[in-house]
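Researcher: Please predict.
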Amino acid sequence: MVTKFFAVTTRGLEAVSAEEIGGIEAVSITCIGYRRVEGSCDGRLAPLPGLRTVDDVFLEAARWREVTHTRDMLARFEREAEQLELVSLATACAELREVRQPPRFSVTASFVGKRNYTSNEIKAAVAAGVRAQYPWAYTEDDRSADLNIRVFIEHDTALVGLRLSKAPLHERPYKEVQRPGSLKPPVAAAMLRLGGVRPGMRVLDPCCGAGTILIEAGISGALPVGGDIEVEAVQAAWENASWAGVQTQIAAWDAGRLPLIDGSAEAIVTNLPWGRQIAIEQASDEFYAAASAEMERVLAAGGRIVALTGAAEHLVFSRLAMEKSVEISLYGQTPTIGVYWKG
């Protein structure tokens, strides 16, 4: 049986997520849109919850056309929700995980552009329609729900789906300790893919923070090494890595004076300090110049540096060529992921 699905991802990383999804056997990509990748699966659904670069995956339940911005759409949302066929999708979810009977459900809604109604009003309308059809209990607390219905509105189309996993995929269980500016795990996984990181490669993160990149690298089979100037960050990275069951080397150091030999890293993937959440002790240009020189020194020939920053103009490399620059949306800002190659 062919099952339609859509994955929600970070804006700017749709192509990276599509590449990962397309690598699953029996999966075909049908559309790449704003913050989403649509596809169909003519086989087992089990690999889909294992995707690393997406925020979440939903089984497609409906596609509502001619969605307007006026408030009379709320009544239509309720009527459309009364027609949703959710039993087969819930059964597909139950084949992969426990789903209580009757299930408790939540609703998530988001839209692009201005509307004369809110996401909470959409949720209430859809919940009313589902309750009119099924003997399911509604909860606003997604964490206590067995099933989540997602309404994703872009322009005049609403894509409706049922989450395949119980919790969003971006909520990694290893994220026990958070730090300001801590990177979303799917973004970290996407950066590793952009860097061509493969199992067995030595991967360095000189500004590791809570260790998200190191952990995602370890899960992928790479050999991660990292550090941070803040002792609290190093401790957080150790604790998170322990929760993830990932072995990695983590140390307290200055990214501008790395205690590593020349050419010792086959890839460098890092979320550099930037934006409003992280303060840099030194002036930005001074810190970036020192960190750039050190990363270039320890990178092996043929390796790549993948750096996320909102201050890419401060990165200075003398022997590296830029392969790609990808703007993404993160923390309400638009930083870039730069990929640099050392020939």
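Model: The longest strand covers residues 299-309.
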